[in-house]
Fold this sequence. Notes:
Low-confidence stretches: 1-7, 164-170
Number of strands: 4
Largest sheet: 2 strands, antiparallel
Number of domains: 2
Shape: elongated
Order of helices and strands: HEEHHHEHHHHEHHHH
Strand content: 5-15%
Radius of gyration: 26 Å
Distance between the termini: 45 Å
Amino acid sequence: MAETEKIDTLQSVELAEGVEIRLRMAGPVPRAGAYLIDFIIRAALLVGGSIVISIAGVAIGGKVAQGLLMLAWFLMDWLYPVVFEAGKRGATPGKRIAGLRVVQATGSPITLGQAIIRNFLRFIDGMPVFTYAFGVTSCLATKRFQRLGDLAAGTVVIYDRIQAMPVTSAPPPIAAAPIPVGLTADETRALALFRERAGLWSEGRRAEIADQASVLTGATGVTGVSRLMAMAHWVQEKRD
């Protein structure tokens, strides 16, 4: 089992209220491929821009043209990934082609600040001497393949074309059982929500939540979950 978890990049992430989703983390190899694609795109844009600026340099002057070239290089090297990753798709053109996306560790879209942090720290990941030894080492040493920039920004790179699915399916239908005591409106609503959201929780998480209502169900563990589900079913049938 330990070896399976080690080589499988499909990892569970627990969100608020115990909801669990699975994200397929991208390792160093596909990320390197995406980076290579982005490098080629940026190089092509810089070459094209350099030709235009060189021609315009006759009119605007050599020093101005040189300054524009340096500015273009800066924008491509530092802001190119930030602009794309902070956008709706959360990915540069290279990552989109490779089917990757940058998200928060919870699976949510990253913010502009996180995009800036992870990409401005790329300089450290690229050390020593632009070999990216620090970044690759960090990826291999962390469970979610996070380079130093990812660790600082709280981000991960995932496969975008694999849908994040709940860990477990919803429990099967169960016969309704009346509630033995009176409940407030909030308590009744919470009971109904338990049944509706039970499919998003693991079996252990359902039991943990149901144990909080053991006074109502008179049981804990799997038995408590079953009784709470039956009562919730009764509440919803009564509403209908």
